[in-house]
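sorry for the late reply, my laptop died twice this morning and i had to redo everyting from scratch. anyway the thing you sent over, i finally got around to it. pasting the sequence first so we're on the same page, its 179 residues, then the predicted structure underneath. double check i copied it right bc i was rushing
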Amino acid sequence: MAAPGDTYERELKALLAGDQKSVAKMVKTCNALETAAYNSLLREPFLVIRAAGSLGVDLVALRWDFSFPIEVKSSTDPVMHFSKSQRLVEQADNMLDECHRSHLVPVYAFRLKGFRGDPWRVFTIPCDHVFRGKHSVLYRRLPKLDVSQSGNYIMRWEDGMKLSDFILYTSGDYSSGME
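ok and here's the structure:
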C-alpha cells in the first residue's frame, strides 16, 4: 500500500509529464482557462523524476526552459503550519540550502483534498538569495510561504498560485495575467 502522500506525488508527476489520462481526469471539474493550461502539458510536458529521499524534494521537473525541485503536500485543512512537525522545518531548510547552491527556485505544491476545480497551489520559500535568469523572475512571481512571528513557515492554500496559472506562466502563455 502506498504512503498517504504518494498518491498526490504520483498525480502531480503525471500531470506535469503530460499524461493524457491524468490530465483528462484533472480537468473534469476545472474551468476553461484551467483546462487549457493543463491541456498545454500534453504539448509541452516536463520530464518529472521522483526523488528517493524524504528530507528535501519529492519531484524534480525538467524541461528545456525551466527546471525546479518540488515538495508535495496535501491536506483537507487549507492551512499547514510547519511548526507542527520538526521534520517539515528540517525539510524546508534543507531544500532551501540545496536550491541556493544550484540557484534553483524551491517549489511547494499543496493539494487541497476534496476541492472541485484546480486543487493545486504552488509557493516558494521566502529568502534573500539572488536567483539568476528565468529563475529570478519565477521566484518573484511565486507566492511566498508565510512566516509566523516565531519564524515558522505557514502555507495557506488560498494564498498560493493555481497550478494551472503556474503552468501557463512556465509555458510562456502570459494570457493568464501573470506577466
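The radius of gyration is 15 Å.
thats about all i looked at so far, will dig more tmrw
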